[in-house]
Amino acid sequence: MQGVMSTRDAIAKAFAVGLDLVEISPNAEPPVAKILDYGKFKYEQQKKRNEARKKQKVVEIKEVKVRPNIDENDYQVKLRAMKSFIGEGDKVKVTLRFRGREMAHQELGVKVLERIRSDMDVDTKVEQMPKMENRQMVMVLTPR
């Protein structure tokens, strides 16, 4: 701690010791500077950035496709897959595709999505409610 001093004096002190004058927080009043090795300072900053990047979790969106007249066993397999995706911290996009005459019975698709929502309700919340996009209905679930 050298206290408040002029820039010229601070640079002279840093030069005398053989180090650099590095401005740490320019927005403070008065600005804060340290006398240290600039190369080492940059290296430490880079290490901190890399460490922060390692700890980041990238949330992926996993897609599960179902049909309006899905069989019970197939439904259970899809449900198990969705639970594992949610357990890993990923979002799940449930796509219910209609073919041909199934478009006339969209209420069957809504029932399937409602069933998925009620079965997954414990660990998830609905980010996007079921909505029609062309010939398919889409719902997005996220972990709580």
Chart the SSEs and their pairings.
Layout: H1 7-17, E1 20-25, E2 32-36, H2 38-55, E3 61-66, H3 72-87, E4 91-97, H4 106-119, E5 124-133, E6 136-143
Parallel strand pairs: 3-4
Antiparallel strand pairs: 1-2, 4-6, 5-6
How would you describe this protein?
With 144 residues, the protein is α+β, with helices and mostly antiparallel strands. It is 41% helix and 29% strand. It has helices at 7-17, 38-55, 72-87, 106-119; strands at 20-25, 32-36, 61-66, 91-97, 124-133, 136-143. The strands form 2 sheets. It has a 4-stranded mixed β-sheet with strand order 3-4-6-5, with helices on one face. β5 (124-133) and β6 (136-143) form a beta hairpin. The longest helix is centred in the N-terminal third of the chain and has 18 residues, at 38-55. The two termini are 48 Å apart. The model has no long low-confidence stretch (mean pLDDT 90).
Structural class: alpha+beta
Calculate the terminal CA-CA distance, rounded to whole Å. Answer: 48 Å
Spatial ordering of strands, largest sheet? 3-4-6-5
Query: Helix and strand succession?
Result: HEEHEHEHEE
Taking all Cα atoms into account, the compactness measure Rg is 29 Å
Question: What keywords describe this structure?
Answer:
144 residues; 4-stranded mixed β-sheet; 6 strands; 29% strand; rod-shaped
In short:
With 144 residues, the chain is of the alpha+beta class. It is built from 4 helices and 6 strands, in the order H-E-E-H-E-H-E-H-E-E.
